[in-house]
Amino acid sequence: MLQKDKIHLLTITALFAAAIAVMTAYMLHIPIPTGGYIHLGDALIYLAACLLPLPYAAAAAAVGAGLADLLTAPMWVLPTLVIKAVLVLFFTSKGERLLCRRNLAAVVIAGLFSPTAYALAGCAMAGTMAAFVPQFLGTLVQGIGSGALFIVIAPALDGVKLKERMITF
User: Fold this and answer.
1) pTM above 0.90, yes or no
2) Using one digit for the tens of pLDDT, what is the confidence trace for 96-117?
3) Element of type H or E holding 31
């Protein structure tokens, strides 16, 4: 890979990380009764996973979501770094379109993996399995919202050929 290509990828990765952090920490928050809030930052993680090669997508997801947690709920930073980096593994950036069969299935898988992983992390932090259901349900709603947003915007971005315009390697 040429040096200019690496710089291009790093720049896009940094922009995604910043957008994920802002969307997660500050935009479109929906409070949930169990505490915390629902955000749509995962939709940007899914988009990054469909556009960027795996290590760059994982970095954008972990850094962006981790920074958001550092700013809003620091006790979640470590679980977030791992969980969000793993989320991108379900998606592919190799297809011609953002919304291919694999990425559609990945929305469902990520939408179930993330709440399960956060619920288990919540149980570990609380020291009891009683934390599982409230944490799971809140994060499940978040995953559904982010997945729905991705499913709505991906065809529009495919229509304007975003992948061709943005990633030219």
Assistant:
1) yes
2) 899 999 999 999 999 999 999 9
3) strand 30-31
- Under 8 Å between Cβ of 145 and 40: yes
Residue 78, amino acid: L
Give dist(CA 128, CA 142) in Å, integer.
23
Domains defined for the chain, CATH in brackets: 3-166 (1.10.1760.20)
CA–CA dist 42, 146 (Å, integer): 5
DSSP sequence for 105-168: HHHHHHHHHHHHHHHHHHHHHHTSGGGHHHHHHHHHHHHHHHHHHHHHHHHHHHHTTHHHHH--
Residue 103 has, within 13 A of its CA and on its CB side, a CA count of 25
pLDDT digits (tens, 9 = 90+) for 8-23: 999 999 999 999 999 9
How far the first Cα of the chain sits from its last, in Å, is 9
State the pLDDT at residue 35. 60
- Residues 57, 91 contacting (CB under 8 angstroms): yes
| 169 pLDDT tier (thresholds 50, 70, 90) | very low
